[in-house]
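fold-stage: in
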Amino acid sequence: MENKWLTIQSFEKNQNLLELINKLLIHFKLNEKGIDAQMSDDEIDESKRALTNFLKKLNFQIHGIESGSDTLTGIDSRSRKLIRNFMEARNRGTKFKSILFKSSPSKVLEILNSNDKEEKAQLINSLTELRGLLEDHVAFDAQDLIGEI
C-alpha cells in the first residue's frame, strides 16, 4: 500500500509541475508572437518559483550523483526514478537535445527570466523536453495505479 501511496504522490506532484510548465510555455510562446497570454504576473511568478524549486533540487541531486555523493538517500523511489530517467536521457542524447539535457538545470535557471530571443527559444525547447520526460513519468505512474486497460 505504501508503494501505491508514493505513486499517487508522484502522480499528483508531477501533474502539478506539468500544469505550471504548460502555463509558462503558453505564456512564452504567445509573448514571442506578440500576443497577450492573459495570465496574471502572480500566476507567471508562481509558476517560475515552482519550476525554480524543482530545477534547483534536480540540479543538486544530479551534481551530487556526478561527484560521487549519495544525494538520493532519503528520497522516495518515484523521485529517484525520475532523476535516473533524467540522467539516462542526458547520457543518451538522442531524443533530448536542449540545454537542460546538454548542460544542466542550472543553465535553464540562468535564462528563466531572460528577454534575449535566442535564450527564450532555448528555454522553450528545454521546458518542452522536460515536459516530455515528465509526461512519460506520469504515464508510468498512471499505468501503475490503474493497470493496463
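fold-stage: in (second)
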Amino acid sequence: MADYVFPILRIVLFFVSTPFVFRALQAVDFSRLFKANSSEQIRLIVMILSVIMGYFFIDVLVSLIEHVYSIF
C-alpha cells in the first residue's frame, strides 16, 4: 500500500472520531471537579480532552491496522 494512505486515514478518522468523543465526554459530570459558575472552563476542558482522546483513540486504531497490514 502507498506510504501516504495511513497518514491520510489517521487525519480523516481523527476528524470523524473527535465529535463522538466530545459527545461521550458530555455524559461525564465535570461540575463536581470545578467551582460553581465555571461552565466556560468546563466546556474548554471537555473540548481539549475530546481532541486529545480522539487523537489517542485513532492513533491506537490506525497503528493496529498498520501492524495487521504488515503481518499479511
